[in-house]
Amino acid sequence: MTYLLRTLNNPSNRAELFERLSALNPDQPPRWGSLTAPRMLSHLCDQMRMTLADESCAAIRSPVNYPVLRELYLYVLPWPKGSIKGPPEAFHADPTGWTEDLGILTELVDQFLALESDRDWPKHPHFGRMSQRDWALFSYKHFDHHLRQFGA
Question: How far apart are CA 137 and CA 48, in angstroms?
């Protein structure tokens, strides 16, 4: 699957993600990994909070810290199942309720999209310095990864 043009910045891509999220059964077991669907949704909320943060999360040493590998991983390569361990900051929120958490995620995405694209964006723990375009593409790819994890 090519992600080059799939991004939260594209309204139709964003609508497709939220349609898939809305159609997902919160009791759906994962195809891989240990997250429940409600925990996955709160994890996506935590990830979107990272994009809005004034401070970056602690860096995690990773091969994708190197610019060439970072670009490949963000813009070209598909993500393998369960291969990357997220930072602790991406697992703070506990699920509160499916509908409520879906509403929170929608609000967080809207807040992200309302920010100026030329602002100083927080560093990603694995990828380092990222632009708004990078964060929008990463977020689409991250959402898609977890939706595929649950067959959506």
Answer: 12
